[in-house]
Write a structure and sequence with these properties.
The structure is a single chain. The protein is of the alpha/beta class. The protein contains two helices and three strands. Strands 1-2-3 form a three-stranded parallel beta sheet.
Length: 66
């Protein structure tokens, strides 16, 4: 069975220190698709960066001026 995390915030600064290890552990645990949700402009940019880096992470963005 393939698991899909439909809403996560790996783009949050609290994950900056160990983000790569966390994402790797989550993937290895069986969650093979993830949505990284942008909640402001900066977080949306980081979500896009993660989606560009990992072929199993997808980004949603918030398109609103702050």
């Amino acid at each position: 069975m393939e698991l899909f995390d439909s809403h996560a915030h790996y783009n949050d600064e609290k994950f900056d220190e160990d983000k790569e290890e966390l994402i790797d552990e989550i993937y290895k645990s069986g969650i093979t698709r993830m949505v990284c949700a942008g909640y402001n402009i900066e977080a949306s940019k980081k979500a896009i960066e993660l989606a560009e880096k990992y072929d199993y992470i997808y980004a949603t963005v918030r398109n609103i001026s702050e």
